[in-house]
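Continued from yesterday's entry.
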Amino acid sequence: MAITSERLRQTFSEGGAQEIYREIKATGGFLDFARRYVFDKDYRVARSALWGLTKATDEELSELQVTLNELIDQAMQTANSSVRRLTLNIIERLILEEDDLRTDFLDFCFEHMVSIEEFPGIQTLCMKLAYRMCSFYPELMDELKRTLEAMEIEYYKPAVKCLRKRILSGKFK
C-alpha cells in the first residue's frame, strides 16, 4: 500500500510506524518522504511521518541533515506536543555543528527543559540539545549548568532528574 497523506492521517500505532519505516527504507527516499510529509499542516500526517522516521538508523536519518533548520523551526512553532517531541527526537539524532548554533533554538531549549508544564520527553530532549549546543562555548556551558542547578528538582519526573544529574556530574556526553 502506498504512503499517502490519508494513510498517515490514520496511522497511530507502533506497528503502523514500523510499517511506514519499512516502506520508506524499501524506496530509499528518506529525504523525499520527509519533505513531503513531515512538515504537513495536518499534525496527524506530520506525527505519523515523524514516528515512522524515528525507526530509521542514524545513517538513514543523515539524509535529513539538509532539513535541519526546517526541523528546528517546526519544533519551535508547532502547537502539537507529539509533533514537537518527535521532531526534537530527529534533531537530536542529527549532527549539530558550531555553525548550526541558533540562539533562538538554544533559548527555546532552555525554556522547555525547565518548564514544569512541559512533558518529560520534551524536557529531556531539550536538555540534551542545549548541552550539545553549549558544548561549543565554555560561557554557554556555564550558563547551562547554572540553569540546571537552579531547577527546583522536586517538581520534575525521574528522567529529567537523572539527565540533569548526569550533565552536572560530567557523566553525560
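--- second protein ---
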Amino acid sequence: MKKVLVLGCTGSIGTNSLDIIENEKEFTLCGLQAHSSEKKLLELGQKFNCPTLLTSKIKDSNAFQDFLDKTKPDIVVNGIAGSAGLLPSKIVLENGIDIALANKETIVMAGPLIKECAKKHKANILPVDSEHSAIFCLLNQLGKENLDKIIITASGGPFRNYSKEELKNISVEKALNHPTWKMGKKITIDSSTLANKGLEVIEAMYLFDTDISNIEVIVHPQSIVHSLVRSKDGMLYAQISKPDMKHPIINALYWPENRYNYLKKFDLFDKELTFFKPRFDDFPLLQYAYDSAKLGNTHTIVFNAANEIAVNAFLDKKISYQDIAKIVKEVLVKDWKDLPKSFEEVFEIDNQARNYAKELI
C-alpha cells in the first residue's frame, strides 16, 4: 500500500486527491497540510482517521521536515498554490521522496535547480498539471528521442471571443467565471489572461528539457485534448479524456504502473473538438512568458512573481484587468541579468520582483 501525503488538501488538487485515496484501496493517507483552512483540515483529519496535520508552517523548513519525518510518505502530492509551493517541493525531493507536482511555480521559479535536486536524491517529479501529465505519458510511449514539437492546449478562458475593446472592462466577478474548470481564484484569473498557459510553457521547457521554440500553444475550448506531441515523422499524438483533474493525479500516484481505476471511461460520441490559434496581441502575458523563457531562469522567476502580485491586486480591485499585463511587462524590462545558482538566490530574485511590482501598483 502506497502512503500518500497531501499538501494543499483543501484546494482543488487536494480535494481530488482525497477522493482518489478514498476510492482506490491501493493508497493510504499519512498526512494532510492546509494553508489557513484549519477547521476544514481538522474535519478531513477526522474523516480519514489521519492525526498528522500541518497548517501554515509550510515556510518553516524545520517544521516541514518534522512533518515528513512523522508521516514517512512514499509520495507527496503538492497542490499548494503559488510560490509557497517551492520550498516544500525542494525538501520532499531532498528526502528522496517522489512528488506528484501540481505546483507549477516550483518548476517555473527553479526548474534547473529542482531537477538537479531530484536527480541527486534519486526522486521522481511526476507532473499533475493536466497538460504536463499528458505530455509526460505521451513521451513515455513515443520516446523523447522521437519528439519534434510539444503542443499545449488552452481552453482560452472566458474571454476567448471578447474583442480588444471588450477586454478593457473586465470585472473580477467575470474573470472568476471559468467556462470549463473549477479552480482557485489566482489560477482562474491566470487562465483568463493566458498567463497560466505561459507558466505551463515555461514549465514544459524545463520539465522535458526542450527548447522553447519546440513548444506551441493551441486554443481548444472543450478541454478534452489535454496536450499533443508531434513526432519527427510529422504525426500528432494526443491524450484525450474528460476535463477532470483526477486523471492526472491518479496517473502520478500509480506511476510507473497503468492501472484500472474507479474513474468513468470516456468516449468521443457526440463530442465536438475545435482548435484555434492564440491571440498573442490581445492576451500579451502568453508572449511575455515566451520572452522570459528565451531570456533565462531569472526572467521566468520575475514573470511569475510580478504576475502573482498583479493578480492579487486585481482581485483586491486595486488595478484593472489589463493592468496585470502592464505591470508584468514593466517588471520584466528592469535589469535582470544573473542566473540563480542556489535556491536562496531564487527566493532573493523572487522577492525583488515582488517588491518592484508592489511599488508599481
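The longest strand covers residues 147-154. The mean pLDDT is 94. Will compare against the first tomorrow.
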